[in-house]
Amino acid sequence: RPRSHTVTTTSSSFTANLSASSSTLAYDREFLRTVPGLLMVTEIVLGLLVWTLIAGTEYFLYPAFGWVMFVAVFYWVLTVFFLIIYMTMTYTRIPQVPWTMVGLCFNGSAFVLYLIAAIVDASSVTKDLDSHNYNSWAASSFFAFVVTSCYAGNTYFSFISWRSRTLQ
């Protein structure tokens, strides 16, 4: 005799959330038109210039330039990482992370350490050093101060964003 087959399907909220979160990432074109977005792109371009100007010299003979290289490369990589996060709106996918606080801490620490690195860079450039490297180191010092001012601006905007979130 033929059997009756009954199929029951159920849906859970976990499955619905999983399928919603696995969709493609969004792309925020407008972020690059904001002041923080423009500052971030400037930080990336000029930060790259800072460390390439130093990397093209014999900086390893002078420990001070090693510190400048560390700060410049470290924050260059992290800034590229954060630009990707903001451009793809990944921060909306991970609401558990306090992104305004992360941005404030990142930009604040970048400002302080880049300021120290720019001062170290500027104070280490003398005519007594190899004249071939002098121009590159002097230029890197100038651009390090420009990048520092960009991080100061982004720190300000991060503080305003953080402050508006904490007052709500």
Automatic annotation (TrEMBL):
Record's bilayer topology term: Multi-pass membrane protein
GO biological process terms on file: myelination
Protein name, entry field: CKLF8 protein
Main location class: membrane
GO molecular function, one term: structural constituent of myelin sheath
Species in which this protein is naturally found: Erythrocercus mccallii
Positions of transmembrane segments: 31-54, 60-85, 97-117, 137-159
Residues covered by the MARVEL domain: 31-163
This protein's UniProt keywords: Membrane, Transmembrane, Transmembrane helix
InterPro entries cross-referenced by the UniProt entry: MAL, Marvel, MARVEL-CKLF_proteins
Lineage, opening ranks: Eukaryota, Metazoa, Chordata, Craniata, Vertebrata
Pfam family, one: MARVEL
Compartments it resides in: Membrane
Gene Ontology CC terms, in alphabetical order: membrane
